[in-house]
Amino acid sequence: MSNLPKIAWVGLGIMGSPMSENLIKAGYSVTGFTLEQDKLDRLAAAGGTAAGSIAEAVKDADVIVTMVPASPQVEAIAYGEAGILANAKQGALIVDMSSITPQTSVDLAKNAAEKGIRVLDAPVSGGEAGAIEAVLSIMVGGEQADFDAALPILQALGKTIVLCGPHGSGQTVKAANQLIVAVNIQACAEAVVFLEKSGVNLTAALDVLNGGLAGSTVLTRKKDNFLNRDFKPGFRIDLHHKDMGIVTDAARNVGAALPVGAVVAQLVASLRAQGDGGLDHSALLRAVERLSGSQV
Predict the structure, then answer these.
(1) d(Cα 265, Cα 241) in Å, to the nearest integer?
(2) What b/e readout covers 25-43, taking b as 16+ CB neighbours within 10 angstroms?
(3) How far, in Å, CA of 196 to CA of 35, rounded?
(4) pLDDT per residue over 201-252, tens digit each?
(5) Which end of the chain, N or C, is surrounded by fewer C-beta atoms within 10 Å?
(6) pLDDT tens-digit profile of 64-114?
(7) Residue 174 annotated among the catalytic residues of the structure
């Protein structure tokens, strides 16, 4: 155990808490920092160490994992006198698992390199369930040597772990992932409303659909959400709204047309504007119900 790298974890939200706990279960020493005291208490109860600041968390760490909501938060924890770059030791490796713009990741890697600190962008897919079960898909951008060094840690968190290219590539692939997921959820939501209004047994219908070409991980994971109208957040509409902004902006920059994605991005935005931003993204069903004249 003493030969394993010391890990600092910054950001203990819906995803970060179970992920950090999986590293503790794998034998790693984890020192964590977040803004919520109850999350720090949870980490300590799981066998980790709660830090009082970013500087305290990262000062002795070999690997610093970050999992925060968006680019502004990554920049806030990385830069400045109280940030990661000013307080991490030379040679440390930052593994940023947040979902942010590719350019933010490229800039972070460049600025970190000037201080002798290495960076990987390593966003994930799989939601809260995937984080708990340690079966996340992890898409990585950065140098091969740094990827190889981080791989044992990532293997304690996920099942499918792929180096996708240079810095920013992980974020680009994550943007594509979020595009596919949003469009898939929207299609499932439309199918659910269509089936219900047609008087079909919804449970039976979704079971048989999921066994054929229409089946997907999205339908498997979200089927019960649709059936039970249970929209407790595993991945919030607010965050998917942010991610759809990332993919539409990135696509515009490279000249890629996203006609269906643009429509779904607007549907996500409208759901958020109606006050459903804190719900799980499967709540896209509510938007389809409203459009179909159902009482929500």
Answers:
(1) 7
(2) ebebbbbbbbeeeebbebb
(3) 43
(4) 999 999 999 999 999 999 999 999 999 999 999 899 999 999 999 999 999 9
(5) N
(6) 999 999 999 999 999 999 999 999 999 999 999 999 999 999 999 999 999
(7) yes
Active-site annotation holder among 25, 89, 110, 174: 174
Report the alpha-carbon distance of residue 105 to residue 76 in Å, rounded: 13
229: left (phi over 0), alpha (psi -120 to 50) or beta: left
| Both tokens assigned to 86 | 């000013």
Query: Is there a contact between 120 and 147 (Cβ–Cβ < 8 Å)?
Result: yes
Strands 136-141, 124-125: parallel, antiparallel or unpaired by DSSP? Answer: antiparallel
Mean pLDDT for 123-147 is 96
Tokens of 285: 């069903």
Confidence of residue 55 (pLDDT cuts 50, 70, 90): very high
CA–CA distance, 12 with 77 (Å, rounded to integer): 13
pLDDT in tens, 266-276: 999 999 999 99
Judge residue 110's burial from the number of C-beta atoms within 10 Å of its C-beta, 0-12 exposed, 13-18 middle, 19 or more buried. exposed
What's the CA gap between 169 and 234, in Å, rounded? 25
